[in-house]
Amino acid sequence: MLNSARLLVLLEIARGGSIVAAAQALHLSPSAVSHQLARLEQEMGVALVERAPQSLRLTPAGRRLAEHAQAIADLMAVARDDLRGHSAGEAGVLRLGFFASSGLELLPRALSAFAASRPHAELELILGQPHELLPDLEAGRLDAAVVFEHPLDPWRRRPAVDVELFFDEPQLIVVPLRHRLGRSSVVRLAALEGESWIGTRGGDTGEPVLERACATEGFLPRVRCRSDHYQVTIALARAGLGIALVPALGLGDTAGVHVCRLDHPRLHRRIGVATRATNRNPLLRAFLTELRSAAGEVRSLLEAQWS
User: Residues in domain HTH lysR-type (predicted)?
Assistant: First the structure.
């Protein structure tokens, strides 16, 4: 098996034209360079240099091997620079999970700043619900996951996963413009008994949050349709097919509908990020810094609009 250190000795001999020049470049003694060269010739089974009393030159085999040595030196330099970038958090791969409505405002703010400061970092983005993303995070297939949790529908805590919460996101009521609540700014859930709803599917437990919330008010909602796409939900409400419970991050286009704040102590989402304490990916720390900053901006926007 070729020894890379001996190949570098041959390369320096080719560059400097002598044992002495190679020794100076490598900070070795001339005898150490001669010994490494002799060992390399023995390993290769062919003469690599032609020695004369006052000169030394490479044989054709030596010149060919020196070319390979140069290619290996270049590859080693690339590997060194690449790993240096990884250790400095400037390069590498960051795998992120996120839920859909975080991809409308929160995540783009964070990733815009992150990508601008680390253009050589690669990003892999996986869309999913928190209960779908957390097993991948725990198994090491994700570095972080932007998640939410409902107080009425908490997911099972996982020992290997840490969760940092950023802010509470209000749940809002979306109604058609001509609805009886079309001029209300705040509405209580109990006042919506008897309405037709455009609902969402269940989370980790399978039971939708809307049903849980209404049960605390003593009634069951009449759900006409379910969709996990909030713009579909809003479009159906706009068409007069029912009212909808929509989180603030998923609101998007509200033309043709009226949005009310909901007065309910447990109908909101807690937004945060889940990570593994054992994860040593240096890119993760940089991303979390940008995510915290973006979360502060989004929290201020939500408070200004819906407080």
Answer: 2-59
